[in-house]
Specification:
With about 130 residues, the chain is mainly α. The radius of gyration is 17 Å and the shape is globular. The mean pLDDT is about 90.
Length: about 130
C-alpha cells in the first residue's frame, strides 16, 4: 500500500531521522493532550483534543519542512498555509483522505489524541465522568 510513498525515497538515515522526529512530535502532542485534558469534563476533553489536532495539522508542516532543510538542503521558507478545514480534519480522522503514509499517520495521531482525551479522567472527579 505504501510502496510508492515518498518516505521510501529517503536514505536510511533520512528515514530514521524522520521516524525519530515523528515519534518525538507525536509523543509531545499526546503528552500535551493528556496534560491539558486532565480534570476536565469529557466534552471539554474532546474539544481540547480536536483543537490540538487542528493546531498540529496547521503548524506541523513547518516542523517537517525544517527537517527537510537539513536533510535535502532546500531553501528556508515558511510553509504554513491557511488553517485546515473541518472537512479535511474529518477525512484524516476517518482515514478517508489519500491512502499514503503521511495521511494515515496523521489520522492515527488524531484518533490517539481523542482516545487519550476520552480516557484521561481523574478517578472520582465528578466533572470527568460521562453523564448517563
Amino acid at each position: 500500500m505504501y510502496s510508492e510513498d515518498s518516505f521510501f525515497t529517503l536514505s536510511t538515515a533520512g528515514q530514521t531521522g524522520l521516524l525519530l522526529l515523528s515519534g518525538v512530535v507525536a509523543a509531545a502532542t499526546l503528552y500535551l493532550t493528556w496534560r491539558l485534558t486532565v480534570r476536565q469534563h469529557w466534552s471539554v476533553r474532546i474539544l481540547i483534543a480536536l483543537s490540538l489536532f487542528f493546531a498540529f495539522e496547521w503548524l506541523s508542516p513547518q516542523i517537517y519542512y525544517t527537517y527537510y532543510i537539513f536533510l535535502l538542503e532546500v531553501p528556508w521558507q515558511i510553509v504554513i498555509q491557511t488553517p485546515p478545514t473541518l472537512s479535511s480534519l474529518g477525512k484524516l480522522l476517518t482515514f478517508a483522505d489519500n491512502a499514503n503514509l503521511s495521511h494515515h499517520s496523521r489520522g492515527l495521531l488524531g484518533v490517539a489524541m481523542v482516545i487519550v482525551a476520552l480516557f484521561n479522567r481523574q478517578p472520582g472527579h465528578p466533572r470527568s465522568q460521562p453523564s448517563t
